[in-house]
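Problem 12. The chain below contains 391 residues. Write out its predicted structure in token notation.
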Amino acid sequence: MKVTTAPIFNVLFNNNGSPEAMKPNLTRRQLLQGLTAFCAATAAERTGAYGVHQLSGVSSLRWPPALGSPVTESLRPVIENSRDVHTHYEKIVEIAGWMAYEELPMPNLAVPYGLEKTPDVAMDFVMVGNTIDTAFTDFNTHVKFQTDYAGAHLSDSQAMFACLKRGMDHGIPVLSGKFLAKITRSDMEKIFAGNMEVPMLDEKMALLRGAGEVLDEKYEGRYYNFIRSCSPRLYDHGNGLVERLAREFPRYNDVSLYDGHEIKFYKLAQLGFWQIYSGLGTGGGFRLEDPQKMTAFADYIVPVGLRLMGITSYSPTLEHAINSYQLIPRDSRQEIEIRAHCLYATALLADEINKIRRADEQVIIPQIDARLWTHYHTTTWPHHLTRTIMY
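Solution.
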């Protein structure tokens, strides 16, 4: 498969600090982003608050091609029985008709701060950060966690990674399982110093301790030792990277029960290996044989993009809850439906786009995820709020 690359991670980790810091001269990519954002807003306006076109029933359900992923294979009970979220296949076909002609580059999630020069350190850095990649916005004030590092003002997960690197600069062994297993609240406050206490600090501390204990007991304190011990596949009869990460590190076992069915999401497990693969794969520092089995990364932002483009629609009850900043409980029907339809719709969209593109321009789902995330991560449209450690 022939793909092009673009420095998507520059949005996350560039020295300018934020997309707003970019110079006003429009590039071709920025022009395309503006045009497609306009098309998305127009589509959302036409579709309305809850959507005009809904799946008429299970008999009309479209299903994407099998990926060999237990994540997509687990979604059917949710998609067939959803009450509050719907995916509109005819809108996916319409949008694929023009999105197929965008570049849709393979994201180049470059490991920040030059750490890619030492792959083992890079893997540790990405995975330690990934361990605590949960909410960075205060649920009450809606203020984002921010910090300054290396001349840049950063927020959200950018700020979290900057805090880890700043800790490394000051000799704090933030990548060591032995240290993480016994990390204190005082350590957390020192490492993650910013404009406010990092949201969910106690939960993040517990996550680092839990991961640190496993790393210290089984992998000489390092994530890279765990990674090297796995098959170079996401799924490989129980020995794959995602399978073992979810099994051995409870914080990555991102599953929910829906009408008695186990629904798998594995958002952070997939995202961590996607970042490592994207940042180190071309240089030979990390081998992944089945990246095509990746799904989208079901979080807060991609569902917003799908909603605004008219690909998904919400019931009036759910729409009101989101627009009035009400918390959607973790593992509730509404939260599970939002995340499941995110994975389902992006898989369908990738499939429809591939029907149009040439054989040497086929895309995989993370490229669609990146297209939506980069266009909508700064939107002012409300996203659902869920207090969870899983995303």
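Discussion. The CA atoms of residues 7 and 108 lie 5 Å apart. Students who got a different answer should revisit the alignment rule from Section 12.3.
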